[in-house]
Amino acid sequence: MCSKLGRFPLNISNIAIMASGQICDIDPKVLEKLKQFRFAKKSKGNAAYVFEEDEMYDDITVEDLVDVLPENSPRYIVLSYELHHHDGRNSFPLVFIYWSPNTVKSEMHMLYAGVKTYLQSQADVSKVSLSFGSDWHGLD
């Protein structure tokens, strides 16, 4: 879907910005894929779902994920990372990431930032990381 807010086009596949009322409209297929990602059984490593590309990555390192992200466009990502507990258990918490490289035009950054909170609530992920620049501060 592609919609316009003011004079700035926003090309986020399956997410459309609305000019009034609701902030955005998310394709139910995207929410279903996110649900599948959220409840997938993981045995090790990190996994990621990148909204705009409608792509899931399994057993991916943070460095490899950064390599597949575009250098000139923001992205919304849900990352499931392996967490080792002191009692020997492993869990896979989710974190919602707003990725915005330094090279992104300010208009595009503002459009994505405006949708971030709504998309996070729809993804039902409470942990949030904002990443600006070319790397992931504190996520590895």
Automatic annotation (TrEMBL):
Gene3D superfamilies: Severin (3.40.20.10). GO terms for biological process: actin filament debranching; negative regulation of Arp2/3 complex-mediated actin nucleation. GO terms for cellular component: cortical actin cytoskeleton. InterPro entries: ADF-H, ADF-H/Gelsolin-like_dom_sf, GMF. Residues 9-140 form the ADF-H domain. GO terms for molecular function: actin binding; Arp2/3 complex binding. Belongs to the actin-binding proteins ADF family. GMF subfamily. This is Glia maturation factor beta. It comes from Jimgerdemannia flammicorona. The lineage of its organism: Eukaryota, Fungi, Fungi incertae sedis, Mucoromycota, Mucoromycotina.
